[in-house]
Amino acid sequence: KGSAGGAVAAAFAVFLILSVPAVSLRMQADYVTNTAENRVITLDDGSTVTLGAGSAIAARITDTGRRVSLLSGEAFFEVARDSSRPFIVAAGGVDVTALGTAFNVQLSHATTTIELSEGSVGLDWEQAPARNPAVLAPGEMAVVDRRTGQMIRSAIAQDDIAAWRSGRLFVNDATIGSVVEQIQ
Fold first, then answer.
1. CA distance 62 to 28
2. What is the dihedral of CA 64, 127, 24, 10, to 10 degrees?
3. pLDDT (tens digit, 9 = 90+) per residue, 30-68?
4. Is residue 172 classed as helix, strand or coil in its secondary structure?
5. Phi, psi (rounded to 5 degrees) for 147
C-alpha cells in the first residue's frame, strides 16, 4: 500500500514539474501555438504577427505605445506604420524597436535572433556593452547571446528570412544543440 502511494505521489510530482512551466506560459500569453502549428494574428493597430510552432506572445497596444513580448518560440512581424506609437518586441531582455517594417525574432534558451526583411529596427539589450543600441538594415541579421551580451551581425538572403514560414530551416554558424532546439 505504501509503495503504491509513493508511486502516485512521485507521478504527481513529475506531472507538476512538467506542466507548471506550460501553464505559466499560457497564463502570461495572449496568443499561443502548439507543436507544428503556425498562426497569423492581426493586432489592434493593424500589424500582423505570424507565430511559429510552439510560440507564445503577449501584446499590449495602447494610445501611446505598442509592446509585444515574445515569451517563447519565433514570430514574424509586419508592423503597421504609426510614428506616434513605437512598436517594441521584447524577447529575453532584447528590445527590437520598429515604426513600419517587417522582421523575424527567434527566442532560444541562450540567444535572441533578429532577421530584418524591410525597413529598419533598433536593438537594445540588457547585457549590451555600454548600452550602445544597434540598428539593422534590410538583409541583416543579429544574434544576441543573452548571457554574455555579445552580438554577432551578418548578412542574410531575403529568401532565408523567416524560412520557417515556408517549411524550411535556415541556420548560420549554429551549434548542433541550437539546430536540434529549432527542429523540436
1. 18
2. 180
3. 999 998 899 999 999 999 999 999 999 999 999 999 999
4. coil
5. -80, -40
